[in-house]
Amino acid sequence: VASSVPAPFPGEVAAAAADSFFPFAALQHLIDTIHTFTGLNWWASIALTAVLIRTAVIPFTVSHQKSGEKIHAMKPEVDAIKHAVDLTDPKSVLVGNYKMTALYRNHGVTPYTPLKGVLIRPSIFMSFFFAINNMVEKVPSLKGGGIFWFTDLTTPDPLYILPVLTSLTFLATVELGNPYIASKMKMLHRGMGVMIVPFTMNFAKV
């Protein structure tokens, strides 16, 4: 059985990256670099890449959480300005907008600051999904790049363990993330986390 597993060969990932969108190709090259220089199997190389990227965005995550704290602390002032504005009076609206802009500037944030943190988790997840999905089709050595029950990384997990673990990991980052994120946005992320299982259950184990 082992002989039927294609051995890695130089350039196999480069061939996959050649027809990938730049961010996905860059991620594929990073995985390949880690795989080559560490000698780790594919599953470990992919896992290590994920850990390194998560570590790299920690400063951004901390900055986003601090911004969330500022916006949460500003809420009474924001509500007071909104309450004082007469929407039927253009001058009142103009003054309100000026005060609101000054308030956000003084605190070093904008109304759109929370969106940066909202986008980062899905962006990382989707980048890995598209990058690795392309590798599954074009990197033959992934067939023997796994471990335990998932030695062949190009086929779905018949036990659904990996999709469930992925979902739980995503949900954990949502629950342990910025406590000041809007409740509706947190519910959206929770929904995305739950949908990961049916969305990925028929995809390759990797």
UniProtKB/TrEMBL annotation:
<dbReference type="GO" id="GO:0032979">
    <property type="term" value="P:protein insertion into mitochondrial inner membrane from matrix"/>
</dbReference>
<dbReference type="GO" id="GO:0005743">
    <property type="term" value="C:mitochondrial inner membrane"/>
</dbReference>
<feature type="transmembrane region" description="Helical">
    <location>
        <begin position="159"/>
        <end position="182"/>
    </location>
</feature>
<comment type="similarity">
    <text>Belongs to the OXA1/ALB3/YidC family.</text>
</comment>
<dbReference type="GO" id="GO:0032977">
    <property type="term" value="F:membrane insertase activity"/>
</dbReference>
<keyword id="KW-0472">Membrane</keyword>
<dbReference type="Pfam" id="PF02096">
    <property type="entry name" value="60KD_IMP"/>
</dbReference>
<feature type="domain" description="Membrane insertase YidC/Oxa/ALB C-terminal">
    <location>
        <begin position="42"/>
        <end position="204"/>
    </location>
</feature>
<keyword id="KW-0812">Transmembrane</keyword>
<keyword id="KW-1133">Transmembrane helix</keyword>
<dbReference type="InterPro" id="IPR001708">
    <property type="entry name" value="YidC/ALB3/OXA1/COX18"/>
</dbReference>
<protein>
    <recommendedName>
        <fullName>Membrane insertase YidC/Oxa/ALB C-terminal domain-containing protein</fullName>
    </recommendedName>
</protein>
<dbReference type="InterPro" id="IPR028055">
    <property type="entry name" value="YidC/Oxa/ALB_C"/>
</dbReference>
<feature type="transmembrane region" description="Helical">
    <location>
        <begin position="118"/>
        <end position="136"/>
    </location>
</feature>
<feature type="transmembrane region" description="Helical">
    <location>
        <begin position="42"/>
        <end position="62"/>
    </location>
</feature>
<comment type="similarity">
    <text>Belongs to the OXA1/ALB3/YidC (TC 2.A.9.2) family.</text>
</comment>
